[in-house]
Structures are given as structure tokens and as C-alpha cells.
Amino acid sequence: MRVFVKRANSYQEFEVPRQPSQTVLDVVTYIQRVLDPTLAYRFACRVGMCGSCAMMVNGVPRWTCRTHVDRVLEKEQFTVAPLRNLPVIRDLVVDMREFFDKWARAKGEFRGRQTRQDDFAAVSPRSENRKLADAGIECIGCGVCYAACDVVKWNADYLGPAALNRAWTLINDVRDSEPLERLRAVSGDAGCHACHSHVSCTERCPKHLSPTAAIAGLKREASKAVLRGEL
Amino acid sequence: MNYRAESLLWLLQRASAAVLAFCVVVHLITIIYAVQGGLTATEILARTRGSVGWFAFYSLFVLAVTVHAPIGLRPVLDEWLGWRGRSRDLILLAFSGFLAWAGMSAVVAIFR
Predict the structure, then answer these.
(1) Are B96 and B13 in contact (CB under 8 A)?
(2) Between A and B, how many CB-CB pairs are < 8 A?
(3) What is the per-residue DSSP string for B23-47?
């Protein structure tokens, strides 16, 4: 098969042998180890746990380790490119700093009320808030949703689906001490209100999470806070 | 633009959309009725002139448009042209005023 790998501003063509159960990451690894050792790419776990091997495959953001070649091969060829919406460091490696800085800007760190002297907080997994938090808690920060999002492309300040999803899980965490500060951080034209509900993030999330639902939740909570005069 | 104002604008956008959904349906039904019934312009004006009901309905329609359209254009100008900040919002405020003037001129014309 022919594989087109984006390097700088053009695509380089490679001829790669087909193997049974071959993943796109296998293909990229083959190119780097056998055909061109200068190819830069990023991976770690190879089994869909770390999220570091995300790339654009045929223009769609995917975990390459969990994408079989069978699923993306069209006329015996496919393309691989670095994740969209992030600056490229080299070849298939992108700079994730802005992506994670936005998590910090969305107040994505947990701030509890209790000290280490206090007892464990008892949180029922069946409570409504906990169910909402659990729905988005499995995000591993791979950046696939961020690359899929058109609003990120159009509005460079937009916090993006992953950071907003993170904020939503914390707002629903009853142990959290800063729900209003977090709502303020994620409201506005760089926050949840900028989302057009294209649902690309939810469509592409490899963990089958719904950042779209999280963002809708943030809009709802921000509206309630505004009407209560709290925001 | 701060988070409070943005949240309020978002609420106003949704609320005006709900009003527009109702107004557009009534407006379309009215058009179809008038056309199919073969009403002339004179007959239509005979029904609208002095009618407080039609005046109130179309005034509400115009109000919803003046709120909805400029708020919707804000992200369009931002995302397509990179135009943000005070100058954009002032122009949109002026656009809102134009919509109100144009819309209410038409409403007053069929009422008087």
C-alpha cells in the first residue's frame, strides 16, 4: 500500500507492506524503523491508554494505535498528518502546550475544601452530580477532540472541548470548592458560549465521551448563575 | 466582553430564538392564508389597519429580530474576519438600531 505522510508543508509517499491486523501506528513505526529513520512521531503505550499517538488519518483525528489499516485504506492508500489546530514541532509531532495551558485556564485542577486531617468524603456514585462527573471523567487528554473542533480553528482563544469537559466534571464534583470561579473561567467568548454544537468532538472522541453535553451543561449552569445574579 | 455579559447575550440569543420560532410560524401561516385566499393588498390593509393585535405581534417579531441577528453576527465577524472588541459591538448595536427602524417602519405602515 502507499502511505502519504505529511512532513513540513508536503506529503511524502512511502510503500509499506500489508500485514494482518496492522494498525496505523504499526505503519508509521515501520516507516521510521525501515524506510526513513528521520521521521519524527510520538507514541508510548501502543494499547489505547496514553493517548500520545493521536494523528490525523485521512484528515480525521484518531489514535493511530487503535486504528486498523483495514478501516482507513482507500484504493490501497491513506494519509497521515500531525494533529490539527496545534503547532507542529516536526513531522507528526505537535506541541501540546497550548492544549494543556487551556486546561489550566479553565481551572481544570481540583480544589477541595478538606485537609488531610479530615475523613474521606462520602460521595454516592448514584447521585446525579456524580453521574454527570463520571460521564466525562475518563478523558486522557489525547487532543483528538481539540483537533476535530472547528471553533478552535476559528477562534484561537477558545478553550476547546477537553478543557471544558474537565471543568464540567469538577463543577459536578461535590467536594470542589470553586464552582463559581470555574464557571467564570469557562464563560465568555473563549469559553463554553463560543461552542457551535457541531458535535465533532463527541463524534471523534476515542473514549466515547460527550464534551458537547458537558459544554451544554456549562451553558445551562452559567445561565442559571447569571439569572441568580451570582456570575 | 466579560463572562457575565457573554452569558446574558447567550441567554438573550436563545430566548429571542424561541420567540422567532413562534413568530415565523405564525407569519408563514398568515402569508399562505393571504395568498391562497386571494386577498388583495387593500383587503390585507383593511385587516391590519388599526389592529392592535397585528401591531403587537409584528412589533414582537421585530424586537426578536433586533435582538437575535446582531448577537448571532458577533461570532460570525469574529470567526470569519477576526473582528472583535468594542468597534465590532458598536457596529452591531448600530445594525440592531437599523433593524429596529426598518422593521418598525414596515409595522407602522400597515397599522396606520
Answers:
(1) no
(2) 49
(3) HHHHHHHHHHHHHHTT--HHHHHHH
Is ipTM strictly over 0.90?
A: no
CA angle B107, B108, B109 (to 5 degrees): 90
Q: Running DSSP on this structure, what letter comes out for residue A64?
A: G
Give residue-wise pLDDT tens across range A94-139: 999 999 999 999 999 999 999 999 999 999 999 999 999 999 999 9
Identify the sign of the CA torsion B10, B96, B94, B55.
negative
State the average pLDDT for chain B: 94
Query: A145 and A204 in contact (C-beta within 8 Å)?
Result: yes
Q: Are strands A93-94 and A2-7 parallel, antiparallel or unpaired?
A: unpaired
- State the pLDDT at residue A189: 80
Pairing relationship of beta strands A54-57 and A60-63 according to DSSP bridges: antiparallel
Which residues on B lie below 8 Å from A231 (Cβ)?
3-4, 7
- List the end-to-end C-alpha distance of chain B, in Å, as a whole number: 41
Distance set, CA B69 to CA A154, B3, B65 (Å)? 20, 20, 6
Chain A residues inside the 8 Å CB shell of B6: 187-189, 191, 193
pLDDT in tens, A27-84: 999 999 999 999 999 999 999 999 999 999 999 999 999 999 999 999 999 999 999 9
Task: Using CB atoms, pick whichever of B2, B11, B80 lies closest to residue A188.
Answer: B2
Cβ-proximal residues to A55 (8 Å cutoff; 6+ apart), any chain: A24, A28, A41, A61, A62, A64, A80, A81, A82, A83, A92
Nearest residue in B to A195, CA atom: B75
